[in-house]
Amino acid sequence: MRIAAFMLLSFFMAACVVGDKTEEADYEIIKVGDKVPKFEISDKSGNLFTSPDDITVPAKTTLIVFFSPTCIHCKVEMPSIQYIVDQTAGDPDLQVLNMSVNTEGLAEYWQQSGFTMNYCIDAGRRVYSFFAKQYVPRFYIVGADGIVKWVFVGETDMSKEQFLAKFRSFR
Description:
Layout: H1 2-14, E1 39-42, E2 48-51, H2 53-56, E3 61-67, H3 72-88, E4 94-100, H4 106-113, E5 120-121, H5 128-131, E6 138-142, E7 148-153, H6 160-168
Parallel strand pairs: 3-4, 4-5
Antiparallel strand pairs: 1-2, 3-6, 6-7
């Protein structure tokens, strides 16, 4: 029984990243300085987000977050993302786009965490595959010009206030 539990935990951890994985690695597709790829995705309410149009017209600095509700490292970072969403609500120059790479336990996790922010479900990692080959959590700050300004993979080791300041610094 313990072996089965260990194997199950190992499986879930394999979807996450341990430590900082920088954009130089071969699993990166989009790097700092690249133009954000074209994609369309709907949020849980059915609203369509189109890249790069919803970033550049009107011009908005965008934080793109790829996460999994089963990833321990994602669970550490998502409260900071909720804080960023709350602090930037109503700011016409900033937006956050959360994309879950799987649906397993998503609704329960969102409810238990008390999150009110929106999210998209990236079924089959269709959008994710334009950005990277593996590892979550994954963060991209895209400037209002549609160019990727910052990439980070894993736990950021930043407080929620520092993460918010980092996001705002690219405005």
